[in-house]
Fold:
Amino acid sequence: MGRLEHKALRKQLVATARAMNACGINQGSSGNLSVRVPDGLLITPTSLPYDVMEPEDIVAMDMAGGHVGRHRPSSEWRFHRDILARRDDIDAVLHCHATYATTLAVHERGIPPFHYMTAVAGGPDIRCARYATFGTQALSDAVLEAMEGRTACLMAHHGLVVGAKTLDKALWLAIEVETLAKMYVHALAIGEPSCLSEAEMARVSEQMRRMSYGQAPDLEQAQPSARDLRGPVPKSA
Structure:
């Protein structure tokens, strides 16, 4: 893999990394990004501040873990590589230390279906992956497990990871998950919020799927009552 290949993607990786910090979901040189290419993946380098990073600093990797470039790849390259190897529906992976998502993660707590937008990550909830030391295969295994059937998960005592088809969509999803985490943390200040039922979250997921194909929702269909929308109210934490 040549350093100058995939020039446009290298520029987009740098731009997206800087946007992560600019929009407040990341800070310093923490977090990392990757994108699939035909011969493997491109990934941000380790410990290089985004404001001085250039396209030539992006590291090219193959799926065996070999890399080419003037820097070492991010220490979290394993879960980037493993997500891309396992998931055909994901071509870009974004990891960040977003404040509210991490606040929940340090309590080993995911995001339940307290709000219908939780379905944006592909299921009724957003799980928190079990803890493992950063940069290890054990962490990658935990992330893969938590992202089964999902496009995002929290990482215990660590942060947030999302996957999408493009870098733009990955950034959008990370911002959405952080917004949900912020709302959930604030809701917890009042008490444990009630959650939408499994049946309602299935309806929400189907509605999202239909709208993503450009189909208008069937607003004439009979709507369930407010009571039907809610499952049992959890006990206060």
Observations:
- The first strand starts at residue 32 and ends at 37.
- The two ends are 51 Å apart (CA to CA).
- The chain is about 35% helix and 15% strand.
- The beta strands are 32-37, 40-43, 59-61, 67-68, 92-96, 128-129, 152-155, 159-164.
